[in-house]
User: Fold this.
Amino acid sequence: MGNEEKQNKVLGEGKGKYRVIGTRPVRPDGVDKVTGKANFGADLNVADMIHGRVVRSPHAHAKIKSINVKKALALPGVKAVITAADFPELGPGDIAAGEVTVSFHDMSLTVIARKKALYDGHAIAAVAATTPEIAARAAELIEVEYQVLKPVMTWKQAMDPTAPLLHEGQITKGVKPAPEKPSNVAARSEFALGDLAAGFAEAEVIVEHEFSTETVHQGYIEPHACVASMSADGMATVWASSQGQFMVRAYVAKLCGMDISKIKVIPAEIGGGFGGKTVVYLEPLAVALAKKSGRPVKMVMTRDEVFRATGPTSGGHGRCKIGAKKDGTITAADLEMEYEAGAFPGSPVMLGCMTGTTPYDIKNMRAVGYDVVVNRPKAAAYRAPGAPVAAFIVESTMDMLADKLGMCPLELRLKNAAKEGTKAPYGPKFLAIGYEDTLLAAKASKHWNTPLGPNQGRGIASGFWFNIGGNSSASVALNEDGTVIVVEGNPDIGGSRASMAMMTAEVLGIDVSRVKPLVADTESVPYSDLTGGSRVTFATGKAVVEAAQDVVKQLRQRAAKIWEVDIDQVEWKDGMAVAIETDKYKPLSIADIARMAGKTGGPISGKANINAAGAGPGFGTHICDVEVDPETGYVKVLRYTAIQDVGTAIHPSYVEGQLQGGAAQGIGWALNEEYVYSKEGNLLNTGFLDYRVPVASDLPMIDAILVECPNPGHPYGVRGVGEVPIVPPLAAVANAVSHAIGKRVDSLPISPPKLLAKIQSKG
Amino acid sequence: MSKHHISATINGDPAEFLCDTQQTLLDVLRDELNLTGSKEGCGSGDCGACSVMVNDRLVCSCLVLGVEAQGATINTIEGVAEGDQLHTIQKHFLSEAALQCGICTPGFIVATKALLEKNPNPTETEARYWLAGNLCRCTGYDKIIKAVMNAAAEMRGA
Ligand code: FES
Ligand code: FES
Assistant:
């Protein structure tokens, strides 16, 4: 099997520069997680708690004519029933939140439908009762009268001018002049550089093709769960597993019409999110039920509910045309895509337009996207939202271009790779980026140089993601014995507490085992944006570094006071205060100074509240080898290598884990995963048996190669790493399969029956 | 309807509980006995997050009824470490960074222990197929498989 010798590699700078950064300590929250002690969303029970349950629409598209809750309320044990009438009716009004724009109007209607059910599984009402069983029975007793409407299930159906409208009066945004007639197209976006026609006129070779993908789900293993309680004075406490306790607080406040100061949100451990827990579903319902019943209410989704009613990401469709000179220089690229937003506007198609061609320096390009509403659950963020589908389309077309040019697809990418100074389609010029280095590392890898057998194919693809910064708060407190607590406001979704502890230890020059990280509730740490956009290790890390530097300054001040010298005469070195240019004073350790803190001015702590700018964009390149069974169309992934510019890897194991996990999700997206709907618009595969995410036996070892091109915008060179890894795999897999069968695979998922039909087709 | 009175041995200790007929063993462990280390990812036998041992057999506790536990010997994630001594498998999950969010981890550790009791020297392929009933959405399984293989090697050597 040889996995011992398959050492994952770290290339580039950073190595050996630091004492803690770049090492691989055991994560601070690890022991609780391997012993079953860690408390996730569904693990909390509180005194006097009752259980909530949601009534969901069995129809994909229907008017709600009436809701009768009398029978449910009469059932012994039922404590409260709520409908949309229990929530304030919100008008349109958007706010920016992380990577996507949030409409509270749409969000409130996603949490609970008012006049129309817009997808199978849409919440209509909720009940709370003394046991989960009674709540379930009560849910069945709620009588909803529907007027069933024709469902609109795909972008194609939705864009048909005769299609029923999901939202009467929806006028497409981003089109000038504004269309007079409403449609299911919520918005059009466009990004362009140079002169497209001139670019194509210059081209000696042109390729053009159409591609499609299906709706897929984030597939976190932990279903959404929360407990809410409300006291008689209107103070609410919410325990929830989410990607942001402050996000939950803000959304609950708005949707329930409460002041933010009246809501405390305590973050539970989160069992996976991948973007899907950047919104609320249950929390406002639980708060409303708790208010009405006067009892704490626990709500936990079933897996069926997770699939039917929580954020999948958009299925998409698109055309791509690329023109190049015979030597491979790309002269023009044109991309047009339609993404299914689900029931409310807000597919990530714009982000797809901004990322698809971004790995390349293309002087003349255009990317156009259509955001199309359909009777499916509203898309939520999913790891690099919008980018994987766009990359599938562009990177597959790049592969076709390489074929047509008779050029190695890696060399084609190298020839056109974006570098420092390249202007991105969405505006800025790149600072230091390591995209080329990922290609060179791919070229030098053992994988790229391994020969293939019959029915086997190799694919390569690249991907880009912005990564973001944003608001983060952190504090670092020195304990009396010189150990340290670092407090942050970002749920730890994949090991970020380890990174925070390590960066703190690096600044203070102490062992990481002396630093304890804590993810605090909304009243114990100032505001922080949610965990998403690959921002936490970068932005919250920056806050942690600044807070720790604040502590170092105070430590030097205290030493200066003890020695009666100027602070400039004291430096901080290897966890000690050292007097400069004199050996008159014995260096003071952090523990020495902590012990004397009371005598030198009181407790010591540092803090930072920042809006972090300078996030470094990320690029990755993946190589995939497959073997196709020509009899069945089954695809076996033989080898997989994920290479990425990760800036500086704070804890390389968890960085590799991001690359490996993203690759696995992308492989699932490429090969197996899809939402399957009936003609009537009911989701047919609402469990993991039929919605097939990759299992251990589906995958090989996934080699992770970390290229370190430090981000100039972070004190230790950190770049976000969590999202890039899901961008290249769709195309890497599809390109590999295409080469194995000698035909272009252009529709995901590449499920065996579909692939078999392709193999047997003439085209 | 009255509840059933069930006696079983859980993690080596005698345990008694009352349960409804329709309650699963997972419900009982989590809600009646407060053993929340076993997780519910699906409730349908597809994710393995609820893996426990019943009479030395690896099962999905969401597919077993509480009443079926009568007289049974049940071992859960809470019983894997001995006091403050982590099991070799747990140590390797930590040192190999074989978890990200950690929701799948209890199930994987219980299933790995069952594997290595049956087959102390599995090939990578055997380990992958044995663990195919345990879903992990975060790690891509790479580091989990490394942890399993390294734990197996250490346990054979010990
Ligand atoms: S909860 Fe039992 S297998 Fe998923
Ligand atoms: S670590 Fe998150 S599901 Fe496995």
